[in-house]
Amino acid sequence: MKKHNFSAGPCILPQEVMRKAAEAVIELDGIGLSLIEISHRSTEFVAIMDRARSLVLELMGLENKGYQALFLQGGASMEFLMAAYNLLETKAGYVNTGAWSAKAIKEAKLFGEVIELASSEDKNFNYIPKGYTIPDDLDYLHLTSNNTIFGTQIKEFPKTNVSVVCDMSSDIFSRQMDFSQFDLIYAGAQKNMGPAGTTLVVVKEDILGKVSRQIPSMLDYKVHISKDSMFNTPPVFPVYVSMLTLQWLKDLGGIAAIEELNEKKARLIYSEIELNPLFKGFAAKEDRSNMNATFNLTDDSLKERFDAMWKEAGISGVNGHRSVGGYRASMYNALSLESVGTLVDVMSELERKA
Ligand SMILES: *Cc1c(COP(=O)(O)O)cnc(C)c1O
């Protein structure tokens, strides 16, 4: 039986996407060849790449607004350095909201001055800093929209005239927003879109080409744009599966429809965390993430019993990250309301029996 998969990443994908992807590995759309044994320059694969790129812009409402969608490699971790390589001439501002932001800051420092505008490290990143000043002379401001490990999420993005770069790895396509407030968005596929192996980059073309340094071809967004995201052999399988997931999302009604479901899932688990005296939430209430709910037991002696109960219920992947401890329920787009209901039932059963 399929488990209730709360894994933080790589993570759950829609079942029908998985079935189609499995079929395409054997034979792609009746062409007598496998997806993974045809040329990436074939008509079939070029159409897949084009479709994936245009679905991204369509779902985000960014068509004909000067943006390009790219499917690159190296993970979000590569974008930590690539963003700085392409955009950082003198100084950039970073908001440190957790382990991933800190890694982005470390890489950017190799390319110029990095100002940490705000940080929530004082409270082990359990909140989103607000009200910080953003200098006008930054090359860009870097934000992390959702902090996968700590379970916090930016609900309101700061208003600024400087370019905004955003790591959306763990909440991309999960909620509606004005995506045109960002000039560069990046996300590893493996948290809401597809298997590990490709990274989505959405970039506003007119911010590129302004730094004075030379950029190696593979790290240059302009080169990838000029080659329609096929400068070298792209990761064909992850791109194909991402395309299927994006199509699945579109057929469902787009980001608006999935946002409604994601809000229901989040309300269900957070109300249990609040009402059940055996649990306490980790993240500050106003900043808690609709994707990753972090929580702890109030009495650690119940751990063994609780762990046995959720395993028995067919639940997988709810152990917290080592830097937070406790539990983390990741509720990405493909996770059903029923799966969250199953976890909540186990939590309330623990209360009844304890
Ligand atoms: C997982 C994650 C990353 C790292 O992604 P890789 O693709 O493994 O490099 C970066 N940022 C955030 C917010 C993440 O959740």
From TrEMBL:
Reaction equation(s) it catalyzes: O-phospho-L-serine + 2-oxoglutarate = 3-phosphooxypyruvate + L-glutamate; 4-(phosphooxy)-L-threonine + 2-oxoglutarate = (R)-3-hydroxy-2-oxo-4-phosphooxybutanoate + L-glutamate
Pathway it works in: Cofactor biosynthesis; pyridoxine 5'-phosphate biosynthesis; pyridoxine 5'-phosphate from D-erythrose 4-phosphate: step 3/5; Amino-acid biosynthesis; L-serine biosynthesis; L-serine from 3-phospho-D-glycerate: step 2/3
Enzyme Commission number: 2.6.1.52
One Gene Ontology MF term: pyridoxal phosphate binding
Post-translational modification N6-(pyridoxal phosphate)lysine, affected residues: 191
GO biological process: L-serine biosynthetic process; pyridoxine biosynthetic process
A UniProt-annotated Pfam family: Aminotran_5
Record-linked InterPro entries: Aminotrans_V_dom, Aminotrans_V_PyrdxlP_BS, Pser_aminoTfrase, PyrdxlP-dep_Trfase, PyrdxlP-dep_Trfase_major, PyrdxlP-dep_Trfase_small
Cofactor remark: Binds 1 pyridoxal phosphate per subunit.
Gene3D superfamilies: Aspartate Aminotransferase, domain 1 (3.90.1150.10), Type I PLP-dependent aspartate aminotransferase-like (Major domain) (3.40.640.10)
GO cellular component: cytoplasm
Keywords from the UniProt entry: Amino-acid biosynthesis, Aminotransferase, Cytoplasm, Pyridoxal phosphate, Pyridoxine biosynthesis, Serine biosynthesis, Transferase
Domain of life: Bacteria
Subcellular location: Cytoplasm
Family indicated by similarity: Belongs to the class-V pyridoxal-phosphate-dependent aminotransferase family. SerC subfamily.
NCBIfam families referenced in this protein's UniProt entry, alphabetically: PRK05355.1
Function of the protein: Catalyzes the reversible conversion of 3-phosphohydroxypyruvate to phosphoserine and of 3-hydroxy-2-oxo-4-phosphonooxybutanoate to phosphohydroxythreonine.
Subunit structure: Homodimer.
Protein name as catalogued: Phosphoserine aminotransferase
Originating gene: serC
